[in-house]
Design goal:
With about 425 residues, this protein is α/β, with parallel strands linked by helices. It contains 18 helices and ten strands. Helices cover about 50% and strands about 10% of the residues. The protein binds zinc ion. The site of zinc ion has 6 residues, from loops.
Length: about 425
């Protein structure tokens, strides 16, 4: 591993499906910096999102650069080709400097038997009793267990190596950040599995900056974490211990850190994450995506008039296409259909009713997570509206931008980086920041 681009200690992945909120998102990073929390903004968009919306990866780079210029941002920032694979990466190579290599599809498929044996033979240190600093208990991994894990993950790691080398050949290895993601799969990776995976990734000579495992529990789109919090906290701490150990043991980059593909809004795990990061003096990449699209809808609804009308129309279309919109996201949404209001009911709602149902404020009794999740996966409707949607974004820019900035800053960055709860009264109002 020679030269490679490194990622700052704390970084925030921000999705912006319709490419209008770059400045409002970056403003959240400016506010965090003012309070002493340095956050590297990373704009991420997956191939799937580009395809649904009909955009090109170069448009994300253009948006990021425009935001950086408008706000005079002097710190690093990156453009992430999110969840790419060998067959989708090419059009991302020029405009991106961060690549999330998704190998979930090959997890569980067997690598060549000879490769598995060679891996196990090469890593006798993994078998037996391993004492990992700052991990509560020693790890006992048998040789058979190392072999089982290699059988499950080695092909995926080899796949990551192929994709990494493809990007490096085209772009130059010094010019990008590499993440490997394994989150979009059925079962979580345990800390011992993560250790074996990291050993294999080091063998592939990937200068890994971030790794996105699948954590225990459900990371549904746009709503809070669902799972055993104590179990998550233990696993997250053990993962940090494993990463620190693997950096030493296998010569992985010192800046290697966890990437949490949050599906947005996992508020209840922010405090355990913050405590663990502090304990380990570790960094974090937190990826959010759809939360900004929902703030656009909230801003439109709040604006009233034609803005509210668009928000209602999007819901009316979405409720007629529930099955179609939910199918691709079956593993990452939990919608209670009984709780979905009818289109007729929503057409009678005023701004406040719409916003209260949609905004992720757990203290508001009118907040409706099923309504929110359905709209989260319905961004294609806005894409189909085309000009009507885009011109409304422009017309109501100020109210939307305020919602986008406050959401990222107050609900995400503050609790995660500054240890303040999202329901605390904001210490710093975003309106005070010049546009
Ligand atoms: Zn992901």
């Amino acid at each position: 591993m020679s030269k490679y681009l490194t990622l700052g200690k704390f970084s925030f992945g921000m999705g912006d499906r319709f490419a209008h909120q770059g400045r409002a998102q970056l403003r959240a990073c400016v506010l965090a910096a003012e309070l002493g929390a340095e956050v590297v903004p990373v704009w991420n968009k997956s191939n799937r999102e580009h395809t649904f919306i009909g955009t090109d990866p170069a448009s994300l780079r253009a948006e990021a650069e425009a935001a950086v210029k408008a706000l005079g941002w002097q710190q690093p920032y990156h453009v992430d080709a999110d969840h790419i694979r060998l067959e989708t990466v090419d059009r991302f190579i020029a405009p991106s400097d961060f690549f999330t290599i998704d190998v979930a599809d090959t997890i569980g498929k067997a690598a060549a038997a000879g490769d598995v044996k060679a891996f196990v033979d090469r890593h006798p240190e993994l078998a037996g009793r391993l004492t990992i600093p700052r991990m509560g208990q020693p790890l006992d991994i048998s040789r058979a267990e190392v072999e089982r894990v290699a059988n499950k993950f080695l092909l995926a790691v080899q796949d990551a190596g192929r994709i990494y080398r493809h990007i490096a050949a085209a772009k130059g290895e010094a010019n990008f950040i590499t993440e490997v993601s394994m989150d979009e799969t059925d079962s979580p990776q345990t800390p011992p599995e993560l250790l074996v995976i990291l050993a294999a990734l080091a063998d592939e000579q990937i200068p890994l900056q971030t790794i996105a495992p699948k954590f225990t529990g459900r990371f549904n789109k746009g709503v809070d974490y669902a799972g055993d919090l104590a179990q998550f906290e233990k696993e997250f701490n053990d993962d940090l211990a494993v990463i620190a150990f693997a950096i030493q043991q296998y010569g992985l980059p010192a800046s290697l850190k966890l990437s949490v593909h949050s599906g947005s809004d996992k508020f209840s795990i922010y405090e355990p994450i913050r405590k663990a990061l502090k304990k380990f003096d570790a960094g974090l990449h937190l990826k959010t995506a759809g939360t900004t699209w929902l703030e656009e809808l909230i801003g439109l609804a709040e604006a009233g008039g034609d803005g509210l009308e668009i928000a209602r129309d999007i819901y009316a279309y979405a409720i007629q296409h529930v099955d179609e919109f939910c199918a691709p996201y079956a593993t990452v949404i939990d919608i209670d259909r009984q709780k979905l209001p009818t289109a007729t009911a929503v057409n009678g709602w005023n701004s406040n009713q719409f916003v209260s149902a949609l905004r992720h404020d757990r203290t508001n009794p009118a907040y409706n997570p099923s309504f929110r999740q359905l709209l989260h996966v319905s961004f294609k409707v806005a894409a189909k509206m085309g000009e009507r949607y885009y011109s409304a974004l422009q017309k109501h820019e100020s109210v939307i931008a305020r919602n986008v900035t406050e959401n990222l800053f107050d609900r995400h960055m503050k609790p995660l980086l500054l240890g303040r709860h999202e329901n605390e009264k904001p210490a710093h109002r975003c309106e005070a920041v010049p546009a």
